[in-house]
Design a protein that fits this description.
192 residues, alpha/beta, Beta Polymerase, domain 2, Nucleotidyltransferase-like protein, NTP_transf_6
Length: 192
């Protein structure tokens, strides 16, 4: 990952969009995803969560990403093979990324939940509210934010379990396994 262009803080959704817009690498990734024309297509999860937490901690360098989560919603094609083809197309556009494309219209099957109605609906069931944040380029090239829980927890450095994700032990395991409190010591884990 390239260093973060100097941004001191992000305080709201407009500041979040502006901060993303200053990162040439992020804009290139968003353009690559937009070029696929995926219904409700966006980049989400750790891609933006880590970016914001790095900015809020004043880090000059970005925390390395495991992968780039790309979401879309197509109930007409639940073939996992299509996701692999989309991974390969993105890899062809930007080879230095580990792309992970997932059709949220089929992810309820993997998670044992009722069918999701949209990308945003699927994100409600993620373990943490601060991770349930994404962005996409709209038809005129502006950045749109996808955040079913809004941005308050993300920008407030709060790690809160989603009310739709019921397994507290998995939530706590993710915090420990990913070492979030070591990497970003200003985080607060919400316990209620």
């Amino acid at each position: 990952m390239l260093p973060t262009k100097k941004i001191s803080r992000i305080t709201d959704s407009e500041g979040f969009k502006a901060a993303i817009g200053k990162q040439a690498e992020m804009v290139a990734d968003l353009k690559a995803v937009a070029s696929l024309g995926l219904p409700q297509g966006c980049i989400a999860a750790g891609y933006f969560r880590n970016f914001v937490w790095d900015v809020m901690h004043g880090y000059a360098d970005r925390t390395p990403l495991h992968d780039v989560d790309v979401l879309y919603f197509d109930p007409e094609c639940l073939d996992e093979g299509m996701e692999k083809k989309l991974d390969a197309r993105l890899k062809g556009l930007i080879p230095n990324r580990d792309w992970s494309v997932k059709n949220q219209a089929r992810m309820h099957l993997k998670n044992g939940e009722p069918p999701y109605r949209s990308v945003e609906d699927a994100m409600l069931y993620w373990p943490e509210t601060a991770t349930a944040v994404g962005a996409r380029l709209n038809e005129v090239g502006d950045i749109d934010i996808v955040a079913p829980f809004d941005l308050d927890d993300l920008l407030g450095l709060l790690v809160r379990q989603s009310p739709y994700f019921l397994d507290r032990s998995i939530f706590e395991h993710r915090i420990r396994e990913k070492e979030w409190l070591r990497i970003w010591p200003q985080l607060t884990v919400v316990t209620t």
